[in-house]
Amino acid sequence: MNDHRDHIDETTLLKYYLNQLDQEAKTAVDKWLEQEENSKAYEQWVRIWQKADAVEDFEKIDVEANWQRFQQSVGTGKQSFWSAWKVAASLLLVAVFAFIIVKYNGQNESGTWINYQAQANDDLVTLSDGTQVWLKEGATIRYPQEFVGSERPVELTGEAYFDVAHNAEKPFKVKASETTTEVLGTSFNLRSASEIAPLELVLLTGKVRFSTENEMVILQPGQKVALNSSGFITKAANDNVNYLAWRTGLFVFENTSMEQVMADLANAYGFNYQFQSATFSSCPLTSKYEQESLEDIFLSLEVLFGAQITQTGDQVTIIGGQCN
């Protein structure tokens, strides 16, 4: 980057970017930015900060307070002032780049990321490495147009089924709800936390490493993990055959409690529910529904149990009902 900053140094530019300058200093930077070369130089700095996605962390920095403490430690003489100012600017640059390097070491450096939200269930997205991702309606995936770093990072909000292309030298990482799932090549279903259902990962094939800031577990096929109310990882065998019903449209219930029936339906169709009768919530159901609408399933349950099921928006209420 060409250096045509005159007396405007990096420390001032960072304070300008964080809106920490007084009006006089801000006006001076505004005037300085009127020069095309200066404006281009500043834009390059902004792209670096934004690319690192570090703005939220930078906004916590009080540049003025830290500068004052530094100034007091080096003296107030004219010569030492300007020398210290240059040193401070240099140290700040080092700190900024160190932050970026440490935080994003080994991650993808692609400049183009894509945000995609599924408009219907089983919406297919194929990534540049051949990985296929089937998204549940409303789910959002963020991924680089090309995987060019030492990792293959993506971010998920909602629920999706992943069939990851194998690459032992470039791990595939999915971030969802403050967790990271790392795989080399496998298939799994991942649901991020929401108001309707908690985070859950079910592994079909291969092996994955699932981690939070404080814990890490390895999953084998047929296992699932979730986060309990305290945020700790719980691992168990997956005994729910309906975890992919949102994709397949197939529900199989074998002596399944109505509480679990409604939980499976709620996850697939996206609603909250409430039983007015705690007794009915424990009643068992043995039945199979394939490619049926939620309205038809509710009608079937009403007939089977003599219950009344009402829905207002995304809230479902189950009234009455008796075990068979």
Automatic annotation (TrEMBL):
<protein>
    <submittedName>
        <fullName>FecR family protein</fullName>
    </submittedName>
</protein>
<keyword id="KW-1133">Transmembrane helix</keyword>
<dbReference type="InterPro" id="IPR012373">
    <property type="entry name" value="Ferrdict_sens_TM"/>
</dbReference>
<feature type="domain" description="Protein FecR C-terminal">
    <location>
        <begin position="251"/>
        <end position="318"/>
    </location>
</feature>
<keyword id="KW-0812">Transmembrane</keyword>
<feature type="domain" description="FecR protein">
    <location>
        <begin position="125"/>
        <end position="209"/>
    </location>
</feature>
<dbReference type="InterPro" id="IPR006860">
    <property type="entry name" value="FecR"/>
</dbReference>
<dbReference type="Pfam" id="PF16344">
    <property type="entry name" value="FecR_C"/>
</dbReference>
<dbReference type="Pfam" id="PF04773">
    <property type="entry name" value="FecR"/>
</dbReference>
<dbReference type="GO" id="GO:0016989">
    <property type="term" value="F:sigma factor antagonist activity"/>
</dbReference>
<keyword id="KW-0472">Membrane</keyword>
<feature type="transmembrane region" description="Helical">
    <location>
        <begin position="82"/>
        <end position="102"/>
    </location>
</feature>
<dbReference type="InterPro" id="IPR032508">
    <property type="entry name" value="FecR_C"/>
</dbReference>
